[in-house]
Amino acid sequence: MESTRQAKIARLLQKELSEIFRQQTAKTQGTLVSVSALRVSPDLSVAKAYLSIFPSDKATELLKSITASAKTIRYELAQRVRFQLRKTPELQFYIDDSLDYVDNIDHLLKED
Q1: Whose CA is closest to 96, among 52, 46, 31?
Q2: What CATH number is attached to the domain comprising 71?
């Protein structure tokens, strides 16, 4: 069960991470990265960001790149939230494939 504080911090981090990725992906034409969900651990030390990447065929390559630059992203995030949070949590990135799952189910249902 997520506490109110965890939820507020998760919303703040999700909003700011989305803005960081929006600015970064504006430089790379044709790729869209959005933060579909963000979960914060109870002690606020770890934030798990679930990324939705379009087109999905570039997802694993882009996730490796994002994971490699996680410290830089964390630093930029810390600069944005420095007046709201004392300590910025460690970032872990995962691919959110729920849209691919929904698309696959729609495709299977249309076949019948």
Answers
A1: 52
A2: 3.30.300.20
User: What is the reported pTM?
Assistant: 0.82
Is pLDDT above 70 for 110?
yes
Evaluate whether 34 touches 51 at the Cβ level (below 8 Å): yes
Q: Render 12-68 in DSSP notation, one character per residue.
A: HHHHHHHHHHHHHHHHSTT-EEEEEEEEE-TTSSEEEEEEEEESGGGHHHHHHHHHH
Please, which pLDDT band fits residue 112 given cuts at 50, 70 and 90?
low
**Percent of the chain whose pLDDT exceeds 90:** 59
Q: Which domain holds residue 33?
A: 4-111
Counting the structural domains of the chain, the total is 1
